[in-house]
Design goal:
Largest sheet: 6 strands, mixed
Helix content: 25-40%
Structural class: alpha/beta
Distance between the termini: 18 Å
Number of helices: 7
Strand order of the largest sheet: 4-5-6-1-7-8
Shape: globular
Radius of gyration: 17 Å
């Protein structure tokens, strides 16, 4: 699926990753996060190579937002926040989250759930974040709030990779972009050029 992929995420920058369905974007992100073991190649974090067996050490630097929800759905938002120790942010006072603090996770809309997941992820205070489709299927109002969260963390020096089928929301915030096609990544001169390579 992937063959000779070379992609770089830099601190304080947002990198876009474009590609058609099935091109391997999610697989690449999961390899970077340590969920999948590649048959060859290396993942470097801050100049140090990380083997597939150094997951705990890797998780100190990098976090992945996958397409699948990672939050248990049978608890309230309040209870969930109480269960997570050492959160860097006071999420109970977030203007969006406080509106549904008493609700069960299972009753949240898709946008509310995605926003909560993203806020939880960034509260871990890692150096790098891999966001797999943070905007897909989300209402525009929530997309605006998610975008603000991403831009805020960029301004705090975080390196962020974003891939999403809602291309217009990605191209508006990225500093550089890649397109993934035929197992390889190509650095784009302009984020808007991705469509020429996907065809």
């Amino acid at each position: 699926l992937l063959n000779g992929v070379d992609l770089k995420i830099e601190p304080g920058k947002i990198t876009g990753l474009f590609g058609s369905n099935g091109s391997g974007k999610s697989t690449l992100l999961k390899i970077g996060a340590g969920m999948y073991k590649p048959s060859s190649g290396n993942v470097y974090i801050n100049g140090n190579v990380f083997s597939p067996f150094q997951l705990r050490k890797r998780y100190q630097y990098i976090s992945l937002l996958s397409q699948e929800s990672f939050i248990p759905h049978d608890v309230t938002v309040n209870k969930l926040l109480d269960l997570i120790p050492d959160l860097d942010n006071n999420l109970e006072n977030d203007e969006i989250i406080k509106k549904f603090l008493s609700q069960k996770i299972s009753t949240l809309s898709g946008g509310e759930l995605r926003y909560l997941e993203i806020k939880l992820l960034f509260s871990l205070n890692r150096d790098f974040y891999l966001l797999d489709e943070p905007f897909t299927g989300i209402e525009p109002k929530i997309i605006e709030h998610i975008t603000n969260v991403i831009l805020y963390n960029k301004s705090n020096g975080k390196g962020i990779l974003v891939t999403d089928h809602y291309h217009r929301y990605v191209t508006g915030i990225v500093d550089n972009s890649y397109v993934l096609k035929n197992g390889k990544c190509k650095l784009l001169e302009n984020a808007e050029d991705y469509i020429n390579f996907i065809k």
